[in-house]
Amino acid sequence: MRPAQDALAARLREAFPEFGADDARTFAAMLLAGHGPGLVDLPEPEFLARVRRDRDYSPSRLVPDAAAVLDRYAEESRKARETVPWKEIAYGDDPMARIDLFPADGPLLIYIHGGYWQELDKSDSAFMVPGLHAQGVTVAVLGYGLAPRLDLDAIVAMVRAGVRFLTGAAGSRPVYLAGSSAGAHLAAMCLPDERVSGAILLSGVYDLEPLVGTYINGAVGMDEATARRNSPLRLPIETPPSIVARGEREPAGFSEQHEAWLRAHPGDSLIVQDRNHFDLPLDLGDPSTTLGRKALELMGVRP
């Protein structure tokens, strides 16, 4: 890949002056993984249009320390499992159809992780548990299968099955959904469930058609029909009370998706200063932050 990566990085730097040398090489590697080496030789208009769309949906491009934030997810999740009682529950036959449940006496929050349907895991996604558990919130971190092993229809079906399992077991306890990025998309796809009392959608993608031609789709493999039927913005959804949030430092695609969802489904819009696509979810378990406070208010919990 090295010659193609170097050639693509050079072309990126020529077309997009904001790219530094290291950023261009990193982004070039992601583009080649999703598009293949033919991207390097596209004629200029098609190349520019393709890369602009990729750039608009690449949050790591704006966050030099994204890997460090993901490491923090994993470390804080590990500490949560060491300090808060929990159990793993199966909700289906697939080995990924598992839930990490952290019981408490209050409302149930189901958290669905992001990773563009192809990365991360429930084991990385319990970082908000200590702060919420201290306020009496039960947290269920939902695991699900990833692309390319599963296609998007199967991923959505698995997550819906997990949410139905949890809402069915919740009894009279109110249930709230939360998700980040692809997890916000999956949470939105579950909102027709009448047992859901509210939602917290962070940096979500709600119309998937713009992703079909991007490097992100290399592993997911959506065609336009798949994207349309799995786009919550295109579905007749009655939304419960919701927080719809994004970081101040998000790429253009996520900002556009945020506004489009709110036009269709008005909710409590929150654009959090000094936060990006990756560090915003960390606020969910911190009642001293605006997002953490509003999440507790939505769930009827007073810190």
Describe the structure.
The protein has helices spanning 2-15, 21-35, 44-56, 66-83, 129-133, 152-169, 182-189, 217-220, 224-229, 252-264, 290-298; strands spanning 87-90, 98-102, 108-112, 138-142, 175-180, 196-202, 242-249, 268-276. With 303 residues, it is of the alpha/beta class. It contains 11 helices and 8 strands. Helix 1 packs across helix 2. The model has no long low-confidence stretch (mean pLDDT 94). The radius of gyration is 19 Å and the shape is globular. Strands 1-2-4-3-5-6-7-8 form an 8-stranded mixed β-sheet, sandwiched between helices. The N and C termini lie far apart (52 Å).
The termini sit apart by: 52 Å
Task: Tell the overall outline.
Answer: globular
- Give the quaternary arrangement of the chains: single chain
Mean pLDDT: 94
**Residue runs with pLDDT of under 50 for 5 or more positions:** none
Sequence of strands across the biggest β-sheet: 1-2-4-3-5-6-7-8
- Percent of sequence in beta strands: 15-25%
Number of strands: 8
Number of helices: 11
| Helical content class | 40-55%
Radius of gyration: 19 Å
Structural class by secondary-structure content: alpha/beta
**Largest sheet entry:** 8 strands, mixed
Order of helices and strands: HHHHEEEHEHEHEHHEHEH
Domain BD-FAE-like: 107-189
EC number: 3.5.1.9
GO molecular function: arylformamidase activity
Keywords: Hydrolase
